[in-house]
Amino acid sequence: MTSLSILPPLTPKIDAILVLDGDGNRLAGKYYGDFLTNTQSASARAAAVAEGNDSGPAVSKSIENLRSAFERQLQSKIQGIAARPDAAEVVSVMGKTAVFCGGNAGQGGGGGDVRIVHIGPANESELVLAHLVEGVYDALTHLMGGATDRTMVLDNLELVFLLIDEHCDGGIILETDGAKLASAVLLRDDDGAALMEALQQGDGMNQGKPMGMPAMAGISAGDMTIGQAFRQAKEQLISNLANRDGM
């Protein structure tokens, strides 16, 4: 009998994840593989040629400048397009497929001006990339309390980088479900971990009474991000324990 070889599962792979504001400025992101990660790569040469700065075998411009050039080309394609959280838009940039969600500021759709962009090979399924970016955007929306604008993202940048790491490692997709991604980020966040530990140690000390969570100065409880809520709850718990020990 001829043994049948078992093919490995088809694992989606991406070249980059970018978090861009409404003007195309990168707030966070990562590049993977050989896509704009060294000056000798084909993608670096393509970016240099597109900018009119090809200087032979070695590209003279720095990788960061080449990435900025690529992102400017990307912004020129997606500027003015608002992609719903459940309906990603697709464009082609430098032979790569770019799929994004967001950019709703001023469009009457809520959310904010920040876009999540997944860059994949030209032969990657657009439907697969759309599924990936929609999951990450859903997680970002949860983590930012629904306000995915530039200011909110910059104020919670550590959560954004944790989100990227939970979603993808070296270009290999790890998780796509938005709710699971948001939960994983909060478990890895230092404030969230400290709160969970404090809650476990202080279990029973409050005699079954619910612990209040007062609003932060100038911020109502409904406007807090999950990260801010964790920090506020931790401070409240520590205060309650200190008052109890001082009695």
TrEMBL record:
It is a peripheral membrane protein. It comes from Ditylum brightwellii. PANTHER family: COATOMER SUBUNIT ZETA, ZETA-COAT PROTEIN. One of its GO terms (cellular component) is COPI vesicle coat. Its main location: cytoplasm. InterPro entries: Coatomer_zeta (IPR039652), Longin-like_dom_sf (IPR011012). The keyword Heme does not apply. It is found in: Cytoplasm; Golgi apparatus membrane; Cytoplasmic vesicle, COPI-coated vesicle membrane; Cytoplasmic vesicle membrane. One of its GO terms (biological process) is intra-Golgi vesicle-mediated transport. The zeta subunit may be involved in regulating the coat assembly and, hence, the rate of biosynthetic protein transport due to its association-dissociation properties with the coatomer complex. This is Coatomer subunit zeta. Oligomeric complex that consists of at least the alpha, beta, beta', gamma, delta, epsilon and zeta subunits. Keywords: Cytoplasm, Cytoplasmic vesicle, ER-Golgi transport, Golgi apparatus, Membrane, Protein transport, Transport. Belongs to the adaptor complexes small subunit family.
